[in-house]
Amino acid sequence: MSNIESVNLSLDELEVMRLSHLEGLYQEDTARIMDVSRQTVGRILNSAYLKITDAFLNGKAINIEGGNVEFSCRFHCYECNHEWKTTCIPKRPSKCPKCESPTIDNLPRCCDNEKKSIS
Question: Does pTM top 0.85 for this prediction?
Answer without folding.
Answer: no
